[in-house]
Design brief:
The protein has 3 domains: 17-76 and 93-126, no CATH class; 77-92 and 127-480 and 812-820, Rossmann fold (3-Layer(aba) Sandwich), CATH 3.40.50.2000; 484-806, Rossmann fold, CATH 3.40.50. Helix content is 49%, strand content 15%. The protein contains 33 helices and 24 strands. Strands 7-10-11-4-1-12-13-17-18 form a 9-stranded mixed sheet. Helix 22 links the parallel strand 19 (557-562) and strand 20 (596-601). The model is unreliable at 1-7 (pLDDT under 50). Allosteric enzyme that catalyzes the rate-limiting step in glycogen catabolism, the phosphorolytic cleavage of glycogen to produce glucose-1-phosphate, and plays a central role in maintaining cellular and organismal glucose homeostasis. Pfam families: Phosphorylase. Keywords: Allosteric enzyme, Carbohydrate metabolism, Cytoplasm, Glycosyltransferase, Pyridoxal phosphate, Transferase.
Length: 824
């Protein structure tokens, strides 16, 4: 539903007439697109055809605003923001575009008149799965907020042919298949075949002397790949502004070697094409092999080089002089993936535009800023020097020079401290000589931001502590946010209507949602809130039955953990507590249990064996629990396959309890925690990421926090904690581990989880044993609150009201003021 906009000078009759005219116009536009754009007659059109026609009709209403904004930005000389991200998890766009245009009711009525169900039509759009999880979804939210706030900007990424894999569960195991989101055409994008940039790899570097007597490096690459642009318009709320998301597709300059083809080597004739196109074929190719690691590096350089060449060309066209780049452009690096931008922008300025090193470096640092999303060492990318030298020899030279200048500064400030110099160096000499890309991004940026208060504090104290000592003014915090337009207005229209009636247009002004606190004791409002939650749970129960064949009771508590499968996110802790609950129900079936449906969803990286084993355990536990008549339906366990944005939009509105239970100090922020709380779920979580700030905003009494603090986790690891002793003192945990070890949930292979449980007994790096008892106690408190529905609903209201600060509009406004220096 659209926000209620009042026009005092318009009578209801006139407004009805205008709506009817708009419906008539949209019907005509859809039929025209169906005929001329899709080539189908209405009588033969499929749901996919109707989707294409509707999307094209909606896109037409975006283009004029988009072009007008582009003209105005150029004419006024406004500063632009360029957001570089390897992931953009944008999901389906049909409802996003139409809602932000303010035309949902018009399109719904127009399609209804044509005999097309709008909800079914939305389901015909494939998810653009161009991201893995929170990082990519955050980028999508940020693009929408930039457009809503009227900030001229562009997103840059890769147009993956297949995106993240499609997850299929067979006999409880994850299997990966290509996600063919482009199979039937993407109606939102505009191909730009005239926008092509050459991307080079390999070869050698020749040092020459210019006629003026200066030294100059000339790169002679051995391979050239073309980057071709595709633009998707991103529409802001109420059509205020439109920004482009420009994605690059890779192709070979010569797609076919005719000489080889004519010799009969039909496969070899296209080998160059296959090698080039592999760059934009799949998101996150497995890095288990040397070829996979090289492809990952090629992907990152490919999109960074194309993006920087593009924005530099635009800047020269608009302003004529690259010395003004920091004044007129802000480049945000979303995590370490685009960090090669530091060396590439230096190469462009020095090698292609003849700048001196010092002036080029000032421009680079003044233009670039870097968002760090993780403290995990494996996620702070590093590349073996030999691999990097083979793929990007000129860039290695530049990085060596950057490092030399950087270490001079470090030595001046911290003389005679070799350990400090080794710590801040761009080259890690202790692990086979590797380039530290997080360090490169830090040194080459004027601002480095964390994504939650805790995460930023830990950045200063841990992974970047020495760099922070060297550059103490660079690290700032920008706590993540989510767009309410997508994650409330579109995904939960019933709740959105209640919130809007109580608070006004929270989609233009996020601060208004705080007014909802006034309704926490309004019994009529609480009943309406409960009714909307019930309807969403009924809808999710239908999806569960259709997808995995499990029947669940919408009256039970829907206990949700939906996120990428990773040991630090501790799906395993949740599963082990589920086993403990299962054992307790069997032992004491007449206790007043709170019925629960434990719902898991998420993908494990293809090469992450432990994560894939955790998925198998979840499915083994589900089979055992769901088939046990002794439980009497008090507990159900569900693993929903192929988690994506569309599935999230179905799960999140139905959630009663949100599981945010990562090991303290390891989750940078989280955004699922914000989306779930915004939709009225209560949170059980650790002192980690943005959970800490959520607690501050909703109040201690409205969230269930448990477990160790981040500093306690570090202390335990430092002194060498003893998980075996903890397990021995926790009989409930010992029983869980023994039952999993002994094959209670894997009778076909009793040793399947032996190594997994041994890891908890012996090392337990993620502190499951330490937090288990506290987590179980929190869950029993949650049971007690569930049995008092009025208290539960009041807590839900306070959670929704407390989410205003977690709007991505607030986050982007802070970036604009503190990092990008652009007006909002």
């Amino acid at each position: 539903m659209e926000p209620a906009i009042k026009f005092p000078h318009r009578s209801p009759e006139k407004m009805k007439a205008q709506h009817e005219q708009a419906v008539t116009d949209i019907k005509a536009a859809i039929i025209s697109k169906l005929t001329l754009g899709v080539g189908k007659d209405a009588a033969q059109a499929t749901e996919r055809d109707w989707f294409l026609a509707t999307a094209l009709a909606a896109r037409d209403r975006v283009i004029h605003r988009w072009l007008a904004e582009e003209r105005a930005t150029r004419a006024e000389g406004r500063k632009r923001v360029y957001y570089l991200s390897l992931e953009f998890l944008i999901g389906r766009l049909i409802s996003d575009v139409i809602s932000n245009l303010g035309l949902t009711d018009v399109f719904r009525d127009a399609l209804g008149d044509l005999g097309v169900d709008f909800n079914r039509l939305q389901a015909a759009e494939p998810d653009a799965a161009l991201g893995n999880g929170g990082l990519g979804r955050l980028a999508a939210c940020f693009m929408e907020s930039m457009a809503t706030l009227g900030i001229p900007g562009s997103g840059y990424g890769i147009r993956y042919d297949h995106g993240l894999f499609r997850q299929v569960i067979k006999d409880g195991w994850q299997h990966e298949y290509p996600e063919n989101w482009l199979s039937f055409r993407n109606p939102w994008e505009f191909a730009r075949p005239e926008v092509i940039y050459d991307i080079h790899f390999g070869g050698r570097v020749e040092n020459t002397t210019t006629p003026r007597g200066t030294q100059r490096a000339v790169w002679h690459p051995e391979e050239r790949v073309e980057a071709v642009a595709f633009d998707t318009p991103i529409v802001g709320w109420q059509d205020r502004h439109v920004n482009p998301l420009r994605l690059w597709s890779a192709r070979a300059p010569d797609p076919l070697r005719l000489d080889a083809f004519n010799r009969g080597d039909h496969v070899g004739a296209a080998s160059a094409q296959a090698r080039a196109e592999a760059i934009s074929k799949v998101l996150y190719p497995s890095d288990e092999t040397p070829a996979g690691r090289e492809l990952r590096l090629r992907q990152e350089y490919f999109f960074v080089s194309a993006s920087l060449q593009d924005l530099v060309q635009r800047h020269l066209r608009d302003f004529g002089d690259l010395h003004s780049l920091p004044l007129n452009a802000a480049i945000q690096l979303n995590d370490t993936h685009p960090s090669i931008a530091v060396a590439e922008l230096m190469r462009i300025l020095i090698d292609l535009h003849g700048m001196e090193w010092s002036e080029a470096w000032q421009i680079v640092v003044g233009t670039l800023s870097y968002t760090n999303h993780t403290l995990l060492p494996e996620a702070l990318e590093s590349w073996p020097v030999p691999l990097f030298e083979r793929v990007l020899p000129r860039h290695l030279q530049i990085i060596y020079r950057i490092n030399s200048e950087h270490l001079k500064v470090a030595e001046e400030k911290f003389p005679d401290d070799s350990d400090f110099l080794a710590s801040v160096s761009l080259i890690d000499e202790h692990h086979g000589r590797r380039l530290r890309m997080g360090h490169l991004a830090f040194i080459g940026s004027h601002r480095i931001n964390g994504v939650s208060g805790l995460h930023t504090d830990l950045m200063r104290k841990t992974v970047f502590s020495d760099l922070h000592a060297l550059y103490p003014d660079r690290i700032v915090n920008k706590t993540n946010g989510v767009t309410f337009r997508r994650w409330l207005n579109q995904s939960n229209p019933g709740l959105s209507k209640l919130v809007r009636e109580a608070c006004g247009d929270v989609y233009s002004d996020w601060t208004r949602i705080k007014k909802l606190d006034e309704y926490a004791n309004d019994s009529a409002f609480l009943e309406k809130l409960a009714a909307e939650k019930r309807a969403n749970k009924v809808a999710l129960a239908k999806v569960i039955r259709e997808r995995v064949g499990i029947v669940v009771d919408p009256s039970a508590m829907f206990d949700i953990q939906i996120k990428r499968i990773h040991e630090y996110k501790r799906q395993l802790l949740n599963l082990m507590e589920t086993v403990a609950l299962y054992n307790a129900i069997r032992s004491n079936p007449n206790r007043n249990w709170a019925p629960r449906v434990k719902i898991f969803a998420g993908k494990a990286a293809a090469s992450y064996k432990t994560a894939k084993l955790i998925i198998k355990l979840a499915n083994d536990i589900a089979r055992t629990v769901n088939d046990d008549p002794a439980v009497r339906g008090l507990l159900k366990v569900v693993f929903l396959p192929n988690y994506n944005v569309s599935l999230a939009e179905c799960i999140i509105p139905a959630a009663d309890l949100s599981e945010q239970i990562s090991t303290a100090g390891m989750e940078a922020s989280g955004t699922g925690n914000m989306k779930l709380a915004l939709n009225g779920a209560l949170t059980v979580g650790t002192y980690d990421g943005a959970n800490v700030e959520m607690c501050d905003n909703v109040g201690d009494d409205n969230i269930f926090i448990f477990g160790l603090h981040a500093h306690e986790v570090e202390e335990c690891r430092a002194i060498g904690h003893n998980p075996g002793a903890i397990i021995a003192k926790t009989p409930m945990l010992a029983e869980v581990i023994e039952s999993i070890e002994q094959g209670v949930f894997s009778p076909d292979d009793k040793s399947r989880y032996g190594e997994l449980m041994a890891g908890i007994r012996n090392s337990d790096y993620y502190m499951i044993s330490n937090d288990f008892a506290s987590y179980a106690e929190a869950q029993r408190k949650i049971d007690q609150v569930w049995h008092t529905p009025d208290v539960w609903r009041r807590m839900c209201v306070h959670n929704i009201a407390g989410m205003g600060w977690f709007s991505s509009d607030r986050t982007i406004a802070e970036y604009a003021e503190d990092i990008w220096s652009v007006p909002v």
